[in-house]
Design a protein that fits this description.
single chain; 462 residues; alpha/beta; Rossmann fold; 3 domains; 6-stranded mixed beta sheet; 13 helices
């Protein structure tokens, strides 16, 4: 399906000597060649270079259109903004951070000043562009700014600023570790390119390695198995790998990666049984990029630092990093509690802040509380993670406003909760919407005014 291409830096990606007919991207019904990619890329560079806006937000489900827009923005020296949330209201809330929003057909109506559909731009611009990829200057990676948005502990989306140089260094490290795995293979994925894991693993690394990547995500366990073959590498989340436990069909893959949250040992071994590979787990965050990796032979398997990263613990046993993905000259403090096994290996103990992960998606408990409290029916609330037998959910203890009490009295409890969920869906992804609610007269506090977590947990359970 592909010819072998040597790994190349992001800065030289568009100048490589690559056969025009070689495959860049594919879906179930078609393949996109290097020639087509160059034509689309050149066309979008022509449009972006002549546009006055400097901050370009990109939000798509289509990984091919995203890759064209991402690289065209980079070569046009635009500041690239990557929202982490597809919801229209959440995108509109970020509008002060960008001048133009590039989308595909999957994104609903967004109320911002300048929204452009990438496919429409490519289809409507019939003028032959004078720009050709091999005629463009090399990208100065240190000057191309990238801002990713992720859930922050303050309750608002948190901006993480990087340069393409940071991503290029990390992509080169991925290739150093696992480049042989990608050769003559193709990339399938269950994760979004809007987040750093998907951006690096399913898009930039394959592009720099000349390896075809899938245009669309695999959404269901049966899709993973139906698309699996010995020439495919799967970039997955633990959430989807965990859902393989009910599958009986097996199919061998060339490799499996998992990142975004902890993968249960049972799920790792089930993946090996069904897919022929023990998943390579990668631990990291949007802020840090990748920190370490492991293949989980047992629950005690430690994490191995990437060889370009140094680590040590602070007084609270939280790991701090010296990493070229962040700042090669200054230590970065995380909220991840760890135990160092050796200079290069550690065991994770858990997070110490109020950003949690539910099915590998980062969720700020503060943000969920903020969204509830901005509703006219809620005067105060607290949101906590709650373990159900089969999954982790969010639960909320609410103090209603006068309007909230009147509204609840006028309608059934079920309709009231549905109304709350409907309002929250304008702001939050479904995974971040509480599934359990408890109404109280006041939030339990101790003598210092701190929330009594144990009392709140008991209220949710009762």
């Amino acid at each position: 399906m592909t010819q072998t291409v040597s790994y190349i830096s992001l800065s030289e990606l568009l100048h490589q000597t690559r056969a025009p007919e070689s495959i860049v991207c594919f879906d179930d019904n078609s393949e996109i060649t290097w020639q087509t990619f160059n034509d689309d890329f050149s066309q979008l560079v022509h449009l972006l270079s002549s546009s006055p806006f400097q901050r370009v937000a990109i939000c798509t489900e289509d990984s091919y259109l995203f890759s064209v827009a991402f690289l065209a923005s980079a070569i046009s020296n635009k500041h690239i903004i990557l929202p982490g949330n597809y919801q229209p209201c959440a995108l509109a809330e970020l509008s002060e951070h960008f001048d133009c929003l590039l989308v595909d057909n999957s994104i609903g109506t967004v109320e911002v000043d300048d929204v452009r559909n990438i496919q429409t731009l490519l289809d409507s611009n019939t003028k032959t562009s004078t720009f050709r990829a091999n005629a463009l200057a090399l990208i100065d990676l240190s000057k191309v700014q990238l801002t990713l948005f992720t859930s922050g502990s303050s309750g608002s989306p948190k901006a993480i600023n990087k340069t393409l140089e940071h991503l290029d260094i990390e992509t080169a490290q991925l290739n150093k570790n696992w480049g042989e795995m990608l050769k003559s293979n193709q990339i399938h994925s269950t994760v979004s390119h809007q987040h750093i894991y998907g951006l690096l693993f399913r898009l930039l690394w394959p592009l720099c390695s000349g390896v075809p990547f899938a245009r669309h995500n695999l959404e269901y366990p049966e899709q993973i198995l139906s698309h699996a073959n010995k020439n495919s590498v799967l970039i997955s989340s633990p959430a989807l790998l965990k859902r393989l436990k009910h599958e009986t069909k097996s199919a061998r893959l060339a490799g499996v990666f998992s990142s975004g949250g902890p993968l249960p040992t049972e799920s790792a071994h089930q993946a090996r049984s069904l897919l022929g590979q023990l998943p390579i787990e990668v631990f990291g965050s949007t802020e840090t990029g990748g920190i370490a990796f492991r293949q989980q032979e047992s629950a005690q398997t430690p994490w191995q630092l990437f060889d370009c990263i140094e680590a040590k613990l602070n007084s609270e046993n939280c790991i701090k990093l010296l990493s070229p993905y962040i700042d090669k000259n200054n230590w970065y403090q995380t909220a991840d509690e760890c135990e160092m096994i050796s200079k290069n290996q550690f065991v994770l103990k858990g997070r110490t802040d109020r950003v949690i992960k539910i099915e590998e998606k980062r969720v700020s408990l503060v943000e969920v509380e903020k969204r509830l409290e901005q509703l006219p029916w809620i005067s105060e609330c607290v949101v906590i993670p709650f373990e159900e037998p089969q999954r982790l959910i969010l639960a909320s203890v609410l103090v209603l406003s006068d309007e909230g009490r009147a509204t609840l009295a006028a309608m059934s409890k079920g309709k009231f909760w549905l109304m709350l969920r409907s309002e929250l869906r304008k702001w939050l992804e479904p995974i971040a919407i509480p599934r359990k609610y408890r109404v109280v007269d006041e939030i339990p506090l101790n003598s210092q005014g701190k929330r009594l977590t144990s009392h709140i947990e008991q209220l949710v359970k009762s």
